[in-house]
Amino acid sequence: MNFLVTGGAGFIGSHLCERLVREGHRVCCLDSFNEYYSPALKWDNISALQGKKNFAVVVGDILDSDLVSDLFRRGCAEVVVHLAARAGPRPSIESPFLYEEVNVNGTLVLLEAARRYGAQCFVFASSSSVYGRNEKRPFAESDALTYPVSPYAATKIAGEALCRTYAHLYGIPTTVLRFFTVYGPRQRPDMAIHKFAKRMVEGKEIEIYGDGTSVRDYTYIDDVIDAICAVVERKFSFEIFNLGCSRPVVLNDVVAALERHLGVTARVVHVEEQPGDVPATHSDITKSQRMFGYSPRVDLETGLARFAQWFKEKHSAGLV
After folding, report:
1. Domain 2-184+220-247+282-298 carries which CATH code?
2. What is the pTM assigned to this prediction?
């Protein structure tokens, strides 16, 4: 099949592109290579795919409707996995209009092209951030999304609503995946595990917001890729699924595990909690288990060991 993977040179996207190419699919990686973090790191993410006959990179923006339409017109997008977005709750507070433009309007550009050219399947990357300060735990897909605490979360809720609307009006098989703190090799440098690792190995202080007792539901990258491939195979008419491990971990315990696997001691400084943060995430994965056999296999200790090995190699090479 022909896959269009937006944000395909990023953390999740590059892993997905590798899997799809390995399985013999034709893959178009659309990525803007913007400066949110180092474009060189994104190019390194897909370096092993360069020269593969069934892989192509298009440097461009999802807001460019002419470019997007041309990719669909050429048959490059039978299946769309839409991962491209401005990411992160905290930066969205500083740049809400940018987040709205890319995350909402960019999604609409892709959905319109999918409508016009008849995409067979559309997968939208959402986030656990949509649950906001939900006091009910674990978070289930049926929970009301009434308390987003960042513009980023609000844009993901809007993107989900657009996906539901287009699936209803035009019969585009669509799946929304709510990712819960995905980690592993190639994780974005602005995310906590990667950011902490870099500062720890360089002997710098790490800032922990609050007392370190916040909890997150960490999900290893391979489990996420397995899930994306599974929902593409099933082509649901419209469904929303949580992708987590349903085993929340305290932040202080994550730092301790990083110390073990990196072989360094963290110099911790506690600072005030940040606007846009939530105290906890916890996924209910019952629906995902029931409807497509989702079963996360990689525990946090194993996943962090793999991440640490990758990080040390890339740090020694000056890439992170």
Report:
1. 3.40.50.720
2. 0.97
